[in-house]
Amino acid sequence: MRRQDTLGYPSLARFNASGVSMFATIGLDSLRTAAIEALPVDLWQERWQQWFANFIAGTIGNPEEEHIQLTSISYSAVRSSWENMGERAGIQWGLRPWRTNPYLYFLAHAGRLDGRPLITFEGRAGYTLLGSTKLEGRLTLQLPASFRLAGGASLDLFRMTSDEPGVTHFAVTLERVIPFHGLNPEAVFYVGFQSGVLNRSPNPRQENLIVAGLSKRW
């Protein structure tokens, strides 16, 4: 046991498990995307058929949406891909029933500024059979000079009247799109502030976090 702890074998096992889970997720996301592309959604022209097609596409498809956090203060390639896919798609919504924490989500845009949506709203309503309803939302406002201001919040309705920690979280980010030359012509510089309860520690405590970084797809 002492030799195992010295060489860090448990850490390697956790890294290997994370890698296996990551590749399994990539494969499953690819299968979901291929399944949506194979469905004859364009042939469903009737109103009820179109509604059903949008529901199926939003439930099985849009795997990027499932991997983003609405109260995150960082910017990632997954969020960039999700924003680019949904930029001109109007209203999107769907259900994620196969998760341990299932939820209903929707995405909506309003207006245009500098070729981008002026206002973007993302929402989630999570539910459990024996637990509470958790609401999450993120509002993004496009500003002049390629700046964006985003605010996200999560709220546990069932625990609002209790003194339990972790009932609410909120985050604010200021983003600036920076143009580059090449195949991926944009990068995003961001500064974010997040406040909430850190539940990963044995003793949950209030945590305020400030992050700054640069996200670039290569």
Short synopsis of the structure:
It contains 5 helices and 8 strands; from the N terminus they run αααααββββββββ.
Please explain how this structure is put together.
- With 218 residues, the chain is α+β, with helices and mostly antiparallel strands.
- It has a domain of 151 residues.
- Helices cover 29% and strands 38% of the residues.
- It is built from 5 helices and 8 strands; from the N terminus they run αααααββββββββ.
- The longest helix has 30 residues.
- It is globular, with a radius of gyration of 20 Å.
- The N and C termini lie far apart (43 Å).
N- and C-termini, Cα separation = 43 Å
Q: Radius of gyration over alpha carbons? A: 20 Å
The sequence of SSEs as H and E is: HHHHHEEEEEEEE
Major β-sheet strand ordering = 1-2-3-4-5-6-7-8
Overall pLDDT:
78
Binned strand content = 35-45%
Number of helices: 5
Based on secondary structure, the structural category is: alpha+beta
What is the count of β-strands?
Answer: 8
3D shape: globular
Biggest sheet architecture: 8 strands, antiparallel
State the share of residues found in helices, binned by percent: 25-40%
- Provide the low-confidence segments as ranges: 1-7
Topology, element by element:
Elements: H1 2-7, H2 9-38, H3 47-60, H4 63-66, H5 77-86, E1 92-96, E2 103-113, E3 116-126, E4 134-142, E5 147-156, E6 168-179, E7 186-198, E8 205-216
Antiparallel strand pairs: 1-2, 2-3, 3-4, 4-5, 5-6, 6-7, 7-8
